[in-house]
Automatic annotation (TrEMBL):
Pfam families found in the cross-reference section: Phage_AlpA
Protein name from the UniProt record: Transcriptional regulator, AlpA family
Domain of life: Bacteria
Gene3D superfamilies: 1.10.238.160
InterPro entries in the cross-refs: AlpA
Organism: Aliiruegeria lutimaris
Length: 61
């Protein structure tokens, strides 16, 4: 299992950190993992699965 940093997630999904936070709050993006008092990350496979869902929706239309 690999944990992605905020920067890595931002580069992967091309959203700002603020937009990622809004999506998380709305339940539309994988939840972050608290790694320490000043550190968070995301499970890489969950983010990749989220991206794949977007690709699958595109292919259906």
């Amino acid at each position: 299992m690999r944990i992605l940093s905020k920067r890595q997630v931002k580069e992967l999904v091309l959203y700002s950190p603020q937009h990622i936070a809004r999506l998380e709050k709305a339940g539309k993006f994988p939840q972050r993992v608290i790694l320490g008092p000043n550190r968070v990350g995301w499970v890489e496979q969950e983010v990749l699965d989220w991206l794949q869902e977007r690709l699958d929706c595109r292919e259906k239309t």
